[in-house]
Amino acid sequence: MIFNYFFINNLIKVNKNPVELAKMSQDSTVKIKGFFREKDLFLSDDVNWRGAGVIIDKTDEFYVILTNLHVIGFWQIYDSDLLTPEINEYSLDIQTVNSNDWVTVRKILVNAKLKDFALIYIKTAADYPILPLSRQKPQQGMNVYAMGHPSGLDFTFTSGVISALRETRSDLEVPYQLIQTDTVLNPGNSGGPLLDEKGQLVGIVVSKVSEKCGLNFAIPAQEIIASFEHQEFVEFPLVPAQIGLFVEQLKQA
């Protein structure tokens, strides 16, 4: 995979005002809705969810969207059965700004080490801007901006600062760096962008500590770039019958 962020982010020198950042992030942010049905002997589990994603690249054929592993339903599927989940329906659809249509996902890549990010590939004739990933290390006190869909309120723009940089979180499956921010975030922001004042992607939103005001987290772009460079991605099957075994095997690897 060759991603445009390797050269685009070096071209962005000038800070943008919040109005410009809101427009940039809105045009590059997508809505994601997912569904699966897990078949049990006596009861079937129907699970629906929604989240956000951000367009980070365009190839000859596809747009590439960055989001969370949990926004493609990975952990929901894993938790749906004590044994191997038997998935007989699975769908993941994308909606872009100013569109009433949902686009079917063509391909999904997940992080093989189960870090909470994934790549979604969609095919559309429309033209959308991409947000470059920043190679710069986030700094405490930096102004940051988020775009997402909290509680179903589509394309909500919020701002804050980087409160701290954390090396690990003990409740995550795989330790990695996190950005702590006071930017207002809620369910529906997951997978959405966290931008700096230049409009570069400094991270993607990953979690909120329930009932803790101003205590939110994002995965730094540096972690994501490192996964690209170390080729840590594997393809997630879109055939429902193959999903349960894939999830179980990846979790146990």
From TrEMBL:
Keywords: Hydrolase, Protease
Matching Pfam families: Trypsin_2
GO biological process, one term: proteolysis
SUPFAM superfamilies: Trypsin-like serine proteases
MF term (GO), any: serine-type endopeptidase activity
Protein name, per record: HtrA2 peptidase
Lineage: Bacteria, Pseudomonadati, Pseudomonadota, Gammaproteobacteria, Thiotrichales
